[in-house]
Structure formats: structure tokens, C-alpha cells
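Pilot study result, target chain (160 residues):
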Amino acid sequence: MIVMIAAVAENNALGKDNELVWHLPNDFKRFKALTSGHYIIMGRKTFESFPKPLPNRTHVVITRQANYQPEGCIVTHSIEEAIKNCPENEVVYIIGGGEIYKQALPFSDKIEITKVHGQFEADAFFPEMNENEWELVQSEFNTKDEKHLYDYTYQTFVKK
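Predicted structure:
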């Protein structure tokens, strides 16, 4: 099963200058809980935005660079190649960025969204989802607090 996971603003913003434009500690905890022990597919810029590889996950990095080989990662050159490098009968997570989400949408079975309730200036965006192809099966609203500056909702979509 291929699952896209992302924190997305109401205007589909993902981030700016290769960084998130909000800080939601509970979303980080949820991301870690869901992706730990799994293969995670990402673009090179997303990988390079981490201070170090994420623990307890197998990193599959998509890049156009011919000689790119970060230690401990599987390097591929297309979304199709990345998927082929992951175990067939396991959950695989697509973690970004914007262009990778766009390429992965047709291959995905499920989408885990943290909808950040706000509009943000960004240079990376989540692709538009066709409402005829996806069904919202779970939704959990969370109010802002001292650690979270924005209301947010966990949403789970499955392909119809």
C-alpha cells in the first residue's frame, strides 16, 4: 500500500524555502508513529532539509543527479523506480515534496493529511485531489494551544 503523508494548509501550501511554515509538535509525533519501521520515499530537497536521516526508516530518495549517493539511502531517478525499490506487500510512505506528491498521486492508495487551518505563503504545494477519486474516511479536529499556533485536522482519505 502506498500512502502519501503531508501537513497541508487550506491553500495547499506545504512549505517555503525547503522548510515548513508552521510548527505542530503533535503532527511530528503522528508522522513518526505512522512512518517508523517503513520505507519512506522523498525528493532530494526534502531529504536534504533533514539535519540527519530519520531513524528507524529506510530512505528512498528521488533525484535527477547522476552521482548523488547519500550514505544509507536508496537513490532512484523516478517515482516508478522508487516504488519498485520498496517491498511489495508493505506500507510505503511518500513524504514529499510538492513535485513528488504530484507524481505519486496516481500510484497512491491512501492519503494522510494534517490540514493546517490557515493560508500561508509558500513555494511548494500539495496537488489538488480529485473529489471523485478520494473518500474522506476519518477526520479529527485539534484546537490550537500553547504549543500549536494553528487549529489543525487529521484527515485520512482512501482511493475510491
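One observation from the pilot: Residues 2-159 form a domain with the Dihydrofolate Reductase, subunit A fold (CATH 3.40.430.10). A full batch analysis is planned for the follow-on phase.
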